Amino acid sequence: MTIEVKVPMLPESIADATISVWHKKVGDTVTRDENLMDLETDKVVLEVPAPVSGILKEIIKKVGDTVTPTQVIAIIDETAPSAFAAPVVEKTAEKQAKSDVFKAESVKSEPFKAEPIAGPAVRRTASQHDVDIATVQGTGKGGRVTKDNVLTAVSGGSRIEKRVPMTRIRARIAERLLEVSQTTAMLTTFNEINLQAVMDLRAKYKDKFEKAHNARLGFMSFFVKAAVEALKRYPAVNASIDGQDIVYHGYFDVGVAVSTDRGLVVPILRDVNAMSMADIEKGIVDYANKAKGGKLTMEEMQGGTFTITNGGVFGSLLSTPILNSPQSAILGMHKIDQRPIAENGQVVIRPMMYVALSYDHRIVDGKDSVGFLVTIKELLEDPARLLLEI
Question: Which of 49, 62, 203, 332 allows an S-S link to 356, with CB 3.0 to 4.6 Å?
Answer without folding.
Answer: 332
